[in-house]
Amino acid sequence: MSDNINSEFDPFLTAIISNRVEGIVREMTFSLQRAARSAVISSARDFSCSICTGQNELLAAAEGLPIHIFGSHMQTKTMTDFHEGDIHEGDCYLHNDPYTGNTHAGDHTYLVPVFFEGEHMFTTVVKAHQADIGNALPTTLDAGAVDQYAEGALIFPAVRVQRNYEMVEDVVRMCRSRIRVPSQWYGDFLAGIGAARVGERRLKALCEKYGRQEIKTFIRNWLSYSESRMEQSIRKLPKLSMTNTGTHDRFGTLLPDGIPLKGTVEIRPEDGMIDIDLTENIDNVPCGFNMTEACVQSASVAGVFNSIDPTIPRNSGSFRRINVEMREGAVVGKPKFPHSCSLGTTNLADRLVNLVQSAFAQIDANSGLAEGGLGMGAGIAVVSGKDERSEDGTYVNMLIMAGAGGPGAPSADGWPTYGLPVIGGLMYRDSIEIDELKHPIRFRFLRIVPGTAGAGRYRGAPATELAYGPTTDPMQAIWPCDGTYNPSKGVRGGLDGTCARHFHVSKDGEETELPNVVDLQVKVGEYVHGNHATGGGYGDPKTRAPQRVLHDVMEGYETLERARTVYAVALTGTAEDETLAVDQAATTALRTANS
């Protein structure tokens, strides 16, 4: 047990209060999802809530998205640094500055300092991905933005939007005059502040119940306990230095070879530490793919947590045992102003999560993960256009309708609802019916594509395919899909996943294949369709249990041809009459011959 834990440490009371704090985060989460107006928040749950201490340490995050919440404390520090001596009860601050602790400009974060008996005890944090933030293009994810000026977003570096619980209307007017569909934004804005205020009220009640000193003791002991758990887990790992690489897809003539990634994960069990060295990555690039410091930290930490004891608390206590080294002015590092970080939360961040978690697979056959599926394709596009039914006469929404397939693991197959590595299955998918009711759009299909998963002893998840188009007026669709040219890798003999592919279909049915980064006008009668990428496999496919292969064929995840060739499993019967069975003797002979 860490020396920082109080000698009168009460494990029962600590567990009770920690669960109460987690419950407060969940109540904040439910409040925002119920109250928000945009589908990307209310349906897809592209937001996260957390609680930080008054000393800017992440205390609790419940089920927040890893890319959002593992850097929450960096934003609260910006608030306390910028407003030192002028932070008061009743304040609320809006923060979306990618250079001072935020993930990217598209994530509006609401920070509410919580006071008890005159002391700043906590800060509630609500971070929500916006449908629009006033960018030059109707998207918060602009791959082609050469810098932050071209990106065009309104930037709020921990700007006060409420004082003494009263709104600062000047800021609201700025946003309503610039952001598309302002009524939708304002509804989300009020919902975000409301969720943070819910947390404030519940934390005050908690302090009233237990007293200020007991809560301060809990904070110190909970973070020290979390650090101790992390230290103990690392001490059980072998001493290793694991270097891993990856490559983001090319981007037109600007990045014809893509963006290389390199990282070294060093496990030091004697010190109970993990070091992640990312200093060998290239300089910032003149487009929107640059990562932010918060995203580098969050993605690196997420890759570690994906690979260790899942019961270890995720907070600043356990973070003390992970050291991330990055370089200023690097594409995977601290960005140098004014480089754009429009896609800081996704493309390279996804590659970085994969790089770290797959490095752990080098330890042994029970460690790490394969690479998860990559890319925000048509199923995660930002769509916009005219809608005479709406208050503003227009609409803009980020679809979360389909995502990439999850990675194979040492003892489990990948999840079809994984989404992206930075999401880890924690977001929801839109309802087709609700999206069609809210916007003039029609979906033709949403389905699994058999035979696309990265094969392995435990396979990645198969691809999801969809198609949609506008119903009344042309629709603009924008997406920046990594994983179109460079697939997610399998590990320990597992095969790579399937790449994404997308098409624009004309009124007469002619298909035109699209590049990875798309900004497309889709006319009425036309539609887009395509599949997202899939996760890599874990372990040799020919060691997969034959009954699992049979189950995949019966459920439509796998094809008969791949079952017999890639997995070397002999199946009898036909899928149509559901009489498939494994011929065990033939399978053994086939695998022996192949080996």
Key words describing this protein structure:
seven-stranded antiparallel β-sheet; 595 residues; globular; five-stranded antiparallel β-sheet; alpha+beta; single chain
Q: Brief overview, please?
A:
This protein has 595 residues and is α+β, with helices and mostly antiparallel strands. The chain has helices at 11-35, 39-42, 66-69, 72-82, 148-151, 169-178, 182-210, 212-235, 293-305, 316-319, 347-360, 432-438, 546-555, 560-565, 584-594, and strands at residues 47-53, 58-60, 92-95, 107-116, 119-129, 159-163, 166-167, 240-248, 259-268, 273-277, 322-325, 327-328, 333-334, 382-386, 394-398, 441-449, 463-470, 475-480, 501-505, 511-513, 517-522, 527-531, 571-572, 581-582. Helix 1 crosses helix 8 (212-235).
Walk me through what this model shows.
With 595 residues, the protein is α+β, with helices and mostly antiparallel strands. The protein contains 15 helices and 24 strands. It has helices at residues 11-35, 39-42, 66-69, 72-82, 148-151, 169-178, 182-210, 212-235, 293-305, 316-319, 347-360, 432-438, 546-555, 560-565, 584-594; strands at residues 47-53, 58-60, 92-95, 107-116, 119-129, 159-163, 166-167, 240-248, 259-268, 273-277, 322-325, 327-328, 333-334, 382-386, 394-398, 441-449, 463-470, 475-480, 501-505, 511-513, 517-522, 527-531, 571-572, 581-582. The strands form six sheets. Strands 2-1-5-4-3-6-7 form a seven-stranded antiparallel beta sheet, with helices on both faces. Helix 1 (11-35) packs antiparallel against helix 7 and helix 1 packs across helix 8. The longest helix has 29 residues, at 182-210. The radius of gyration is 24 Å and the shape is globular. It starts with 10 loop residues before the first helix and ends with a helix. The model has no long low-confidence stretch (mean pLDDT 95).
